[in-house]
Amino acid sequence: MMITIKFRYCSLLDTLITKEMEQLFELRPQKDLLDPTFEGYKLSLDSLPVYKHEVPVAVEHLKPNEEQFSFQHVKTFGLHNHLIDDPWSDEVAFFISKDLQIFKINLHSLVSQSPEFKSVWQLPRHLESRDGWFNASLSFAGPELAVITDGGGVLHIVDTGIRTPANSHLWQAKFSSEDLGNSEPFKITHSMLNTTESNQSETLSVLALKVESIDKVESQIALSVFGCSEKETPFINCLEWVQYEHTDGHWSFKQLKRLAVPHGLDYASILSPGKALCLIAREPLGIIFDSKKDVAAPLANNETMQDETETKVAYTWTESPEEVTVWITFDKQTSKHDLVVKIESQALKVVYKHQTYLDGELAHPISVGSSTWTLSDGKLELILSKSDKSLSWNHLIQSDLRGRKVLDAETAADYESQAEGGGRPPVFSSEQLEECDDMPMDESCVFRFNGETNEFTHKAILSGQLLFFTQSAPGLAPAFCLRHDVDGLIWQPMGDELEQSWGCLHTAALQALGYIQASKEQRKFTVAPPNMTYAALCDAFSHVYIYRQSNCTSTGVEMVHRPTGRRVGNVARQQVLNIDSSEECLGALATNSFLLLLTSSSLFAIRVNSD
């Protein structure tokens, strides 16, 4: 009985298979960063200097079209931050205009009457209409390298030079590619440049987020293993991890991996040195495509070499002068999303969920354009049009003896009863699961994905909500903020260079931020500077809430604790600002000194700290 239960576990879903490989870890807060005596924020009526400047060209702001109606589309468009910071320079920021110019902002000039907005590059426009495109996105992969997309399917690798306010170097495109797009919109979420151990070449890793119709996703395994269906998940998030190689002064495509995340992706980053990813998402999720190797479970050689006298039949087939017809029987509840069928001129492959069922070289060439397949009541029928009508086929697949050649469809039906249990991947329904097998699918988790093995190696279940994520030091993955009790805790994913078990380090705490953010129904952006001395919550329109931490020295006032008379040098303070604009907030960026807000026509610079 115990053997049977173990067999069922290994055959249910891809998510169950990978769980045995994952190492569970905990997100453990550092007690010395927590403040159990925190009494709250004091409302401050002190005014803050606000500098308003008109941008040279209106900011790009695309919205979903009528066909982009899913929650994933709304999230991708609505929460897009049009202000881009630079991990290698805290003196500049960037935005992309509606005519696809990239502007560099000199932050020091924002306190003057003549702010510096410099156009550093013009994205090429390969189409006039941008209907259905995502907003253009920009990511800095290195101190002199950036990756940019127009939002419509083209990726550019650009030499930026050193990005300081004084550097007038104009950017130059070094490589443009449609490997990610195929005319489908995508958004860049993170990028990283790494040098190989021999220093002979460089590898650029880029993460791109897509929201695709389930019928258009290119996958090497069936999407049904992740619970995908046209009714429940007509659109799914696909995270594409593409790598480019720089050798002898030239960039070239290296590899593409695609992960399916049906229930939405909250965070994705590349871990140094570019061989693994950190993700925050809900299960199930997993890899569905690799350009260098097939991710489907291979068909074992001993499964194709059974003796002709055996009665087990995996598939039946017949031929006429014009075509070859193949029948494979699965469970009656099988849908087209359980199958991946790949028909080539000289090869045929059928994948059932994550398991390869039929794969090999055909006996003779076929015409792919006139070949087709259908599925009805669990019975797959493939019609392969012969290229040479004069040839007779002695077998279907080279070295695969599991098939039986029959006279017609009626004869093929006689073998269906013999095929039961004969090599077909076992199919289970939810009725076979016991109560202890039931798994909650509502929890978000932090995952580490190993790109060398295509496996999830580490997992931590989140006990609190993801509040926001923020840029880290150069070469590190962005940090993310999770709610812990009422606070917001900053976590830094570790790189893989450290000789210890992978995890996330607790680096800072923002007092009561989890409680505060839950009460802000109109909030669009939450940001915090690198030194974590304050946090800012920005509404879609007008209002900004600034929460200074008690370690922020720019309070400008000495407070006294009334019950005890104790003088308190620095206290946590709240400040509320009303922005003089009727336009929607399109971007927010926090530096140690400034809080920047971007609308379609204006940039607001709020001087938060003077030190």
TrEMBL record:
Residues 310-397 form the CS domain. It is found in: Cytoplasm; Nucleus. Keywords: Cytoplasm, Nucleus. Pfam families: CS (PF04969). The lineage of its organism: Eukaryota, Metazoa, Ecdysozoa, Arthropoda, Crustacea. GO terms for cellular component: cytoplasm; nucleus. InterPro entries: CS_dom (IPR007052), HSP20-like_chaperone (IPR008978), NUDCD1 (IPR037895). PANTHER family: CHRONIC MYELOGENOUS LEUKEMIA TUMOR ANTIGEN 66, NUDC DOMAIN-CONTAINING PROTEIN 1. Its main location: cytoplasm. SUPFAM superfamilies: HSP20-like chaperones. Signal peptide: none annotated. This is NudC domain-containing protein 1. The keyword Cytoplasm applies.
